[in-house]
């Protein structure tokens, strides 16, 4: 018994001496002579401000060999560029990550990071789900951008209208705007043009415009016409106003009931000389799936290619970027105001409560004019034509019905050209 | 007995292990440090989240000086108010008096007022003992020492430095020897004029100076040669002296040659990239542009100096300086933060994230070139600074008024409507009047 106590004592002594030693401080680590090859879609300066400087601070002596993406490339060409560059670590947009994961070019991070070092349950479930494929985790997104609808509480109180809530459809939202249209206050100040607003509604509701199987144009007339009619009349009465690059100006001046904006408006509202009582909710949703949000989307995805020659260091970097320190550091320096995906950080942005946003799913419905499906020429022609017809309807030069007919014809002509081009 | 002692030791050790090894720390009350900085957004851009993770026990309050002084901009490579007037130094001093920031940043051109007002802590000894502050290039430390009359109260956060970029293909094609570091203005202007004459048919300029108007260049060359053109407090200017007239002659010749270029409005950087300029005197930002034009073969040398033996730059400028408030109740913590803000890590990060690299860190070891170009040319010259105790230099508005007058005069000389002698004779009477009216 005495011997056992002696052994326990000795072991405890050793453990005390060893165990009390903390993980080496950043200052004590030395990565001199090590080079990590990172691929990024951002220009050099933005990469460093958003992530690179944090990485260099956390890994003293480390050198970054930065490969900046050619922004002209997309889809398969982009993936080829990434593979040809042979980076150790890839920072990418979500669609490029999707392409890389689908083609099995990425390493499973669950195995690499190790369960002791990395706990996925600490992060937003949806982010982990978006990055996972059949039980494997191929990427991690440290931050998400948030876009939603701001509303002025005082103005709504004055009109005895209850505050809007998450899960409101576009139909309901436009109906509310029409109800609030009093010819004085702007109901909705938006950064979107009429054509972008209409396409936003179409994408959220996943309206199709082409039946690919039969290669036919298939627009649901009643859906499109109702949306066109509503948008045109709200623009005509100036219940909806687009100020272009001056987003949120009227809202900040207390002259607009609603506005759609990213988190940067939160900072402006916090700094406003004449404070406004405001609320912030996710963007309107589709009729079919009210729990699916278009308001929270991944900022950048970190992943490690299968061919990476520096997987261990790459995984250490991902761990650091995903850490608590990373969340605090990047929150203070990121060029675009956004939030960490760490659950302890993602519900608040400088006083704006984001809980409602996380109650919705992060899945982003594919745009009905996806760049991977249509050529840029098709998309450009389509938007120019669409905006022209909508503006003509707003000016009362054509009826909403004629506007719809013109749009249908526009899709048909542009699609025929697209098919001819492919053949 | 032995057993009892052993059990007591064991219990103690387990308790120590359990308590001592836990990483849970009592939440400490944060110390608040106030920093006077141009703006909140500039502070976020320059230091971002670094301070929050580095100093977890400190909260930082930023007081903006731009709301009192207005924002600054680079004009003729001087950091001046965007409004076109002078910095309101009285407003700055009142703001400091009211807010009592622990760390004070201010535009470098008001350093004389700040240093004379004796608001800043003498950091000479601290500079020598702080490992964070080692590595700043000695020429900038010496400049701070000169400004502080032998003592160091402030440090610069960056420098705006220029160098001459030269197009190797043009030099090679025209059979000229490539230029070298420390060439003086006489040689550079001579070379520029020779290339302009040789390249007239192809529209190739000799030397372009995008950061200096022709008048500013005239005054800068004089400054580089340690010439003064006005006497503070006296109604006298010195443009009629032979040395000034000689500079004017070279400048007029350059002006005539540049005016005959077919596309004089083309941006200097574009002209250089397109092979239409043999040399450009510019900041580091041109190097960033050239990184996207790998086909251009270029080199870089120091900005021209006043005399062949000189190692001083007449244009090298500081954007802002910083020091510690003499009245801070938190000297140790303010020093630690100030040292970090002026340290290697922050300088590197700021340079990495700098979108418009007019300025460079005050640490030349951070600037590297994979192709072994002479980028150190941006650091080889020393700044020309004066003691803060010397009489105040000309106000920005008075200098602008004189430059505006000379800008109307120089084309008249170039068009031979005035001779140089006639012009400088008029200037001797007109310029003092302009100075008087703009004091």
Automatic annotation (TrEMBL), chain A:
Pfam families: SBP_bac_8 (PF13416)
UniProt keyword Aminoacyl-tRNA synthetase, yes or no: no
Keyword Manganese listed: no
InterPro entries: Bact_solute-bd_prot1 (IPR050490), SBP (IPR006059)
Keywords: Signal
Protein name: Sugar ABC transporter substrate-binding protein
Domain of life from the UniProt record: Bacteria
Range of residues in the leader sequence: 1-21
Cited Gene3D superfamilies: Periplasmic binding protein-like II (3.40.190.10)
TrEMBL record, chain B:
Superkingdom of origin organism: Bacteria
Keyword hit for Transcription: no
Keywords: Cell membrane, Lipoprotein, Membrane, Palmitate, Signal
Spans through the membrane: none
Organism: Paenibacillus sambharensis
Pfam families: SBP_bac_8
Signal peptide residues on this chain, from the entry's feature table: 1-20
InterPro entries: Bact_solute-bd_prot1, SBP
SUPFAM superfamilies: Periplasmic binding protein-like II
Designated name of the protein: ABC transporter substrate-binding protein
């Amino acid at each position: 018994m005495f011997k056992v106590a002696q052994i326990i004592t000795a072991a405890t002594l050793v453990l005390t001496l060893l165990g009390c030693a903390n993980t080496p401080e950043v200052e004590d680590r030395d990565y001199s002579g090590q080079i990590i090859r990172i691929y990024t879609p951002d220009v050099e300066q933005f990469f460093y401000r958003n992530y690179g400087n944090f990485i260099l601070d956390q890994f003293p002596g480390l050198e970054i060999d930065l490969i900046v993406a050619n922004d002209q490339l997309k889809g398969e060409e982009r993936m080829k560029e990434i593979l040809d560059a042979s980076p150790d670590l890839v920072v990418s947009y979500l669609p490029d990550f999707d392409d890389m994961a689908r083609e099995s070019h990425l390493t499973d991070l669950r195995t690499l990071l190790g369960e002791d070092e990395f706990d996925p349950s600490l992060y937003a479930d949806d982010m982990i789900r978006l990055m996972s494929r059949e039980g494997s985790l191929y990427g991690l997104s440290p931050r998400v951008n948030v876009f939603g609808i701001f509303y002025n509480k005082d103005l709504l109180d004055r009109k005895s209208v209850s505050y809007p809530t998450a899960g409101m459809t576009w139909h309901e939202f436009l109906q509310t705007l029409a109800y609030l249209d009093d010819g004085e206050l702007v109901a909705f100040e938006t950064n979107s043009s009429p054509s972008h607003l209409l396409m936003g509604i179409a994408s959220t509701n996943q309206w199709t415009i082409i039946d690919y199987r039969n290669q036919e144009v298939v627009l649901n007339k009643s859906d499109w016409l109702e949306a066109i009619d509503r948008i045109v009349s709200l623009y005509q009465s100036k219940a909806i106003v687009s100020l272009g690059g001056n987003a949120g100006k009227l809202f900040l001046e207390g002259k607009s009931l609603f506005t759609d904006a990213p988190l940067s408006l939160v900072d402006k509202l916090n700094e406003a000389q004449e404070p406004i009582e405001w609320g912030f909710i996710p963007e309107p949703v589709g009729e079919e799936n009210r729990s699916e949000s278009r308001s929270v989307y991944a900022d950048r995805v970190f992943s490690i290619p299968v061919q990476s020659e520096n997987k261990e260091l790459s995984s250490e970097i991902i761990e650091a970027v995903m850490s608590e320190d990373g969340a605090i550091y990047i929150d203070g320096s990121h060029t675009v105001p956004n939030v960490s995906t760490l659950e302890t950080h993602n519900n608040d942005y400088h006083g704006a409560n984001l809980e409602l946003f996380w109650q919705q799913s992060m899945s982003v419905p594919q745009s009905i004019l996806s760049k991977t499906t249509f050529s840029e020429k098709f998309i450009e022609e389509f938007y120019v034509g669409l905006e022209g017809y909508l503006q003509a309807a707003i000016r009362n030069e054509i009826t909403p019905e004629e506007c719809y007919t013109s749009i249908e014809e526009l899709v048909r002509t542009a699609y025929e050209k697209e098919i001819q081009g492919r053949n | 007995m032995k057993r009892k002692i052993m059990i007591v030791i064991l219990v103690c050790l387990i308790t120590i292990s359990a308590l001592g090894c836990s990483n849970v720390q009592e939440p400490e009350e944060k110390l608040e440090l106030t920093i006077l900085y141009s703006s909140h957004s500039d502070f976020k851009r320059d230091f971002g989240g670094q301070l929050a993770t580095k100093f977890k026990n400190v909260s930082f309050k930023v007081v903006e000086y731009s709301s009192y002084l207005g924002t600054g901009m680079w004009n003729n490579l001087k950091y001046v108010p965007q409004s076109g007037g002078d910095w309101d130094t009285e407003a700055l001093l009142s703001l400091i008096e009211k807010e009592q920031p622990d760390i004070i940043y201010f535009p470098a051109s008001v350093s004389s007022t700040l240093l004379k007002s004796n608001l800043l802590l003498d950091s000479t000894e601290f500079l020598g003992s702080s490992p964070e502050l080692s590595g700043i290039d000695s020429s900038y430390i010496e400049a701070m020492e000169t400004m502080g009359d032998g003592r160091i109260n402030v440090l610069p956060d960056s420098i705006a430095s220029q160098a001459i970029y030269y197009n190797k293909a043009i030099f090679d094609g025209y059979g000229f020897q490539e230029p070298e570091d420390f060439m003086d203005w006489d040689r550079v202007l001579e070379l520029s004029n020779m290339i302009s004459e040789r390249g007239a048919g192809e529209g190739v300029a000799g030397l372009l100076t995008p950061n200096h108007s022709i008048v500013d260049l005239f005054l800068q060359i004089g400054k580089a040669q340690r010439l003064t053109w006005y006497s503070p407090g006296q109604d006298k200017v010195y443009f009629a002296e032979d040395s000034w007239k000689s500079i004017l002659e070279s400048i007029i010749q350059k002006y005539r040659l540049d005016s005959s270029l077919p596309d004089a409005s083309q941006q200097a950087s574009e002209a250089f990239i397109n092979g239409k300029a043999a040399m450009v005197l510019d900041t580091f930002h041109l190097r960033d542009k050239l990184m996207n034009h790998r086909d251009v073969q270029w080199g870089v040398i120091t900005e021209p100096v006043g005399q062949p033996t000189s190692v001083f730059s007449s244009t090298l400028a500081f954007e802002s300086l910083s020091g510690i408030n003499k009245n801070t109740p938190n000297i140790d913590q303010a020093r630690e933060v100030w040292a970090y803000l002026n340290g290697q890590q922050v300088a590197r990060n700021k340079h990495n994230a700098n979108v418009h690299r007019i300025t460079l860190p005050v640490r030349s070891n951070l600037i590297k070139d994979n192709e072994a170009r002479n980028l150190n040319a941006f650091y080889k010259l020393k700044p020309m600074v004066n003691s803060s105790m010397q009489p105040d230099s000309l106000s920005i508005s008075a200098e602008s008024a004189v430059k505006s007058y000379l800008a109307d005069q120089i084309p008249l000389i170039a068009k031979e409507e005035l001779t140089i002698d006639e012009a400088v004779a008029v200037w001797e009477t007109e310029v003092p009047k302009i100075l008087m009216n703009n004091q």
